[in-house]
Amino acid sequence: MSYYSKIIGTGKGLPETIMTNKDFEAFVETSDEWIRTRTGIAQRHIANPEKGESTLSLARKAAQNALQMANIPAQEIELIIVGTVTPESVMPTTANSLQRDLGAVNAFSFDLQAACSGFLYGLSIADQYIRSGSLKTALVVGAETLSTLINWQDRSTCVLFGDAAGAAILTRTDNKSHAILSTRTYSDGTRGDLLKIPHGYAACPPWRADYRPSEHKIKMQGSEIFKLAVRNMCDASMKVLEDNQLKVEDVDFFIFHQANIRIIEMCAKTLNVPLNKTWLNVDKYGNTSAATLPICLDEAWRAGAIKSGDKVLMTTFGGGITWGATLVQM
Ligand code: UT7
Fold first, then answer.
1. Which residue has a Cα nearest atom 10 of ligand 1?
2. Helices (H), 25-133
3. Atom 42 in ligand 1: residue holding the nearest Cα
4. Which of the following is catalytic: 21, 96, 116, 232?
5. Is the pLDDT confidence value at 277 over 90?
6. How do residues 33-55 score in pLDDT, each as one tens digit?
7. How many other CB atoms are found less than 10 A from the CB of residue 26?
8. Which residues touch 317 (CB under 8 Å, ≥6 apart)?
9. Which residues lie with the beta carbon below 6 Å from any ligand 1 atom?
10. Cα-based angle 168, 158, 152 (whole degrees, multiple of 5)
11. pTM
12. 313 DSSP assignment
């Protein structure tokens, strides 16, 4: 008997506070007009630690919503993966703390660092465990508080990101017509310098004399990343289609990583996908890294834009660099 993974629940978690483009005009030389036209972003949500908002609290909210939709108790979860580059702490991991908070006593749990590809990589790993028959039910979360890694003086990056979490619950099925069909994951460490956080970790920990707080922030070569994002997301999307002997027209719905509306539009144009077959929320949330795909999936599914049996192609691109695509029949 062959096993597959079926997505049975999704959820999102957002901080309360909204920061608009206008708010940035007070401290960097930018404008609402520049941000909207160059990125498509109008606002983003930012976690407020004084309200108890953090990577963990957002992950918890997303996971609880997904559990509610799946209508299963947390005890059924056997694996928790949290994709994040802004973990609550490194030890215990965000996933370990989430396991505790959910009471998912039968799960083993770990964080996964793949920047914006964290959720897609996590989905692929959980799918392998389920397909191999090792376990039945897994929770995959993408959760970020990138506001903690933003250089608020750098106008070329500070306007791009937001805080959020998204989650999906997978369970074993033998019915391939409601399952993850296949996933392709890629990395290219030789291009790692294009999007990086130079200080703050083992290469230059905060107690070293040459540590600089300004280097413990996101640094990005935007236009290079832009071009690679388009090329790699399109390539990965074509690969998963080839794997399944499908064409672009056979796919019912596309979810592109929400980093910049121009990147999404260019991918859609290259692949010949009409924008009304995609979900867009970069205007509301900015780039929430590992959280963008599961949040789009959750919103599109709950809104009825994705229906049972639809073939959904999700693709992502992130720092490291990392990218990939997955094809799911819902
Ligand atoms: O999740 C994966 C990782 N991230 C991404 O995928 C993001 C990829 N990159 C991008 O989205 C775009 O490259 C950006 C939005 C970051 C920048 O857009 P761009 O069209 O590539 O602009 P640019 O970097 O070529 O900069 C054009 C000009 C520059 O001024 P000069 O040198 O022409 O005088 C920048 O200094 O725009 C300036 N600029 C700004 N101006 C006003 C950069 N940021 C801002 C800003 N407000 N916030």
1. 222
2. 32-39, 55-70, 94-102, 118-131
3. 30
4. 116
5. yes
6. 999 999 999 999 999 999 999 99
7. 6
8. 116, 117, 228, 229, 232, 233, 257, 259, 323
9. 30, 34-35, 38-39, 116, 155-156, 159, 195, 222-223, 225-226, 229, 259-260, 263, 287, 317-318
10. 125
11. 0.98
12. E
